[in-house]
Amino acid sequence: MTTFAFHRPATAQAHRAPGWRQRAVQALLLVAGVSASVWVGAASRTYTSTADFNEGVSVGISTVDGKLSLSITGSTFPVLWVANAGEDSLSKFDTRLNKEVARYRTWFGPSGQAGYVNHLGSAYSGAAPSRTAVDVDGNAYVLNRHFDGRSATLVKILSNSFIDRNGNGVADTSADANADGLIQSGEMKPMADTNGNGIIDASEIQDERVAWAVRVPDGGPGFPIKSGQLGRSLCIAPNGELWVGLYYEQTYYRVRASDGKTLQGPINVGTTPYGCLIDAAGKLWSADLGSSMARLDTNTGVASPPVPTFDANYGIAIDNNYVYLGSYANNTYVRINKATSVVDKPAAVKFYTLGLSVDGTGAIVTGGPGGGDGVTRFNAATGAVICSNVGQGLSDARG
Questions:
Q1: Residue 34 and residue 300: Cα distance in Å, rounded?
Q2: Could you read off the pLDDT of 243-264 as tens digits, one per residue?
Q3: From CA 12, how far away is CA 43, in angstroms rounded?
Q4: What is the pTM of this model?
Q5: Looking at beta carbons, which pairs linking 169-173 to residues 24 or more positions away fall under 8 Å?
């Protein structure tokens, strides 16, 4: 998701006001070239010159002679969130420092904690987190698939703010204590199933950047618990709401981001959700492992018939005009026109693709299984290869 923000140096007060970035950028964009008054808690600050703006780090905007301009190419938060399926954890990786700066448990652990099940290195047993999404404030969401027959579990991790559960005024959270760029088990907060009920209760969360962990659906009125359905799709709508796809049930649920409450569902889409993205108009596009793509209007909650893709799908990416699916049938990628649903396969070079994305220039970037297919960048309009490192012994690139 493209974001525009002006980042003021972090303070203790800023950590307790997670919405300050949005309020700041809204003010800045509205009065670009004049001045901006930014509130942080009870204090205020007016930015009027390039020197003022240079006190922080601009993301997605630039300043010339005290005037703000949107960057031609949008920016994203410089944080990579990696789901560690075989460890039931989520890594926070700073791409500027090239270091892992935190790691959060999405299920019970480490060994010795009540409820812990050892499946280290196996991505297809236990809770096995996989799907991730990031909101406009940089907060991360990760979905446990649960190959153990339990309900899909959705976890929210706060990027900068925290929940002061013990009232000591500081964030008790995972951190790289020895500054080696890698998080060890002892640098993570433990989590135990203290009451033995097999679900994560709020009282069992020890890391104060973990806001909540809920089952989807949550078992509230009209939303009975679904077990053994595999949570395999997660994306965020323009209004900030989350959409979770259950694989075997072939359905989506709408979830409130503030507390994880299930708001709507099940909505049957006719295919097995395997990954999703939502465009600016609020239309959800859902990949599957078969040969079709589901569509769902998140504004109305109504699903349209799936679009046949005549290919074996895997990853999914999107731009203003097209949706792209990674081809596991040696066609590199499939392109679907969002307006007409016309399907084509324009890549000039054909190979197997698992993960793919659209970069800031609009080019298509693909990655394949094993080492042979490497990473290749394609011209979105023509399908021609821009650059490639195929055959250079890389591992799987799945997302």
A1: 40
A2: 999 999 999 999 999 999 999 9
A3: 13
A4: 0.85
A5: 171/15, 171/208, 171/209, 172/206, 172/207, 172/208, 173/102, 173/207, 173/208, 173/209
